[in-house]
Specification:
This protein has 339 residues and is mainly alpha-helical. It has 14 helices and four strands.
Length: 339
Amino acid sequence: MMEGRRIDRLEEGGPDRRAIMGIYDRDYIQDRPGGFGLFAGGGSVVKTLILINVAVFLFGWIGGPSVRFFYDEYLAARSEAIFRQGHIWQLLTYAFLHDPSNLFHILWNMVFLWFVGRELEDMYGQREFLAMYLTAAVVAGLCWSILDLSQGGQARMVGASGAVAAALFIYVLYFPNREILLFFVLPVPMWLFAIIFFGQDLIGLFQSLQGSTTAPIAFAAHLSGAAYGFLYKKYDLRWSRVTGGWNLRWGRRTRLKIFSPEPKSRRPSRQGAKTPARSGSSGLVGASGPFADDHLDAKLDEILAKIAREGRSGLTEDELRILQEASERARNRRGERLR
């Protein structure tokens, strides 16, 4: 249905390449332990999510009526079960199920997830992207369930569309002018594609509320997922900020990869006082320690997104200094690890 035009990569070598090496050497780009995706902390979260969705779909497809009954009764989102029977896990498990009789249901969801998810995972990091994706699924499932219960609570909902809609809307906000081939033919900017896509959902929701349509589409989940994506991007609702940098997997604080290691010794000045720690002109390192600026991670993400949108030529002098400082920190960190 569509094909994205990837941004041009920076040429190998040269000062431009070296200037942003610190960005791509961050914890969520490199320094990942071995393994595959969610199971061992490495690989790609997007690939792992797609793998899980496909595996669940195939199991339901070949498992027969008993497996599909289990899916429908215990894993699909049912507002009656969620609010009156306490099956709150259905607010998340539904997002990994798809209609086994409709191949296009899972196909387009996974195509969208692959198309927008890879760059968002690179920008936000594995854990943050996963937290955003799962939270969007819960928000979309909750909004749909509330609306369904108000209308009698007789429907079931399956599909990753709510979470994918959140990722898609975030992507559109970052890259509104990037082109996509609608129906593999017509090139349209992402902002126009979003208007068409979510505009149809809005019309469908109004029609379903008026009882003039029986289309088996969870319009409310799509729109609530998109609304969550908008709020997430606009207000920078990163879960890593909420948890204060805590590693959710092991319960200890994580370390950013880019930092300025404390020097082992300081050369005394002529007056006998210690030489103060070096402070970059960008203000990233100060007297209070290597992370005097609490918004370092956000600044680097914003610069990375700006490079993707406008190219490196659009950066200001301050932004270039931040990249240079980040690159130096990354090289220092690599040198420390090799000792």
